[in-house]
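Complex 580.
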Amino acid sequence: MDRIIRIDVGAPGGPRVTEEGLGKYAGFGGRALTSAIVCAEVPPTCHPLGPENKLVIAPGLMAGSAASTSGRLSVGCKSPLTGGIKEANSGGQAAHYLGRLGIAAIVLEGEHNGSDLYKITVNTDGVKVEVDKSLALLPNYALCEKLKETCGDSVAVISIGPAGERKMSNSTIAVTDPEFRPSRHAGRGGVGAVMGSKGVKAIIVDPAGTKMRKPVDPEKFKAANRAFVEGLKRHGVTGQGLPVYGTNILTNVLNEAGGYPAYNFGQGQFDRAADISGETQAALEDERGGPGSSTHGCHRGCSIQCSGTYYDKDGNYLTKQPEYETVWAHGGNCGISDLDVVAKLDFLDDNYGFDTIEMGVSIGVAMEAGVIEFGDAEGAIRLVEEAGQGTPLGCILGAGAATVARCFGVERAPVVKGQAMPAYDPRAVKGIGVTYATSTQGADHTAGYAVAPNILKVGGDIDPLSPEGQADVSRNLQIATAALDSTGFCLFVAFAILDQQDTFDAMVETINAMHGLSLTGDDVVELGKTILRMERGFNASAGFTKEHDRLPSYFTREPLKPHNVVFDVPGEELDQVHAF
Ligand code: SF4
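Predicted structure with iron/sulfur cluster bound:
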């Protein structure tokens, strides 16, 4: 993995492909690489859809190897949603295939002129860019069906749906899973719009003729990976909870803790949470059956397999198993308690290319504004369809929750730096509130998952209702996450490595054996700090100040039932999160 592929879509005579070594970016992968390139090459004050912005697609350092759970893909740019730096992370097959091809990053850059729509193929022969207007406005599933006719289904596709082509601020980049379904998404921050602004509809990554990457020290690698997998299987969350129930196991947990934001963050519990819980979902999936119904990996080589496949009542594939955050966003957040409706909304989001969190929160804000009623399932489906078709109302929804709130005169927009809050109320889970406020990415639970020590009692035990100690917890998790996002390992390995020192050591050993390094835990922490400093620097130059590291004021004013708490972590402590 020593090549960076650049595609200048604005070159005279048509897109120009160049290739270069890693140079000053050597040692970086995944988020470290996307953020390093964006920080060095994108003017922080540029328009996110303009020619100066770049889209960087980078697998992690372990991509293409046999290391378990290491096939995550990073996508970076200046975000159209937040106006700051963005790294969005996806599963799917593309990261491992890019790794096997020796590609550390693909950079889309330059000014796209005219109406040409590009299809890019990357394989052992090189990179081919073709104009293919027949792909215009195809939803992701139809696009993959069409591409399959010429490419087969042994490739991976990285694509945008109509939302990305229309350059909506809520638009994703889809990545195909092992069954060649475009069900995995770099979801947050509107990265699809940046790909759309470069005129690129799809990137086909063909690994034919490649092999898995060989470690520098194969024996050491094998032993370390075995110990790592054993540690993942030993831990209660990664060994049992996630494989059996998926991430939606959190619905009952958060609801019982009073931190489940229902009705557009109007209360901390949802009275029909049991109807959409992970336990109910797993029972339904078992009853309906079908391949990979309750346990499935988003990419091959994951030993946790937190995902699943959702079939309708007639046994037809509907979508991948909706994640907890999706079930919450389209479910309890909107007063909807029908899993089939949630699954349908998840499919529509994936098909058009919308982030399920941003879309669910946008609909919740629209419900608060009275556009439709809370609980109106048919109305919610209609709104996503409108967004997918680009009607005027749909374009408002596709611009994200903050825009919906502005258009309809709603104060209660649960966003930070323009990005919608996920499925944990910051008043009752204060550690995650600190992450929402201070993350370089806008409101993002994955940037520093303080739910672990606050609620799950993993990696510590901090009272979720108390402001004390939350800044320290969030800081440490944000640093660790930035480093993890650079390796390509899935964030969910954090449950095991936070609780089990030997599993953490085994993970670091797989990296060392793969690359012939001798990294220590301290080196990993330093990498995380380096990434956050770069990202903070970019955001500061883009105009962000400490006033942007705050939650909307109503979270400090309106008590949340049932605990009747407000967000009360002092501003001075929020200002210290990045003081390292
Ligand atoms: S744990 Fe889940 S999200 Fe993570 S790599 Fe495995 S299947 Fe994908």
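DSSP finds 23 helices and 16 strands in the chain.
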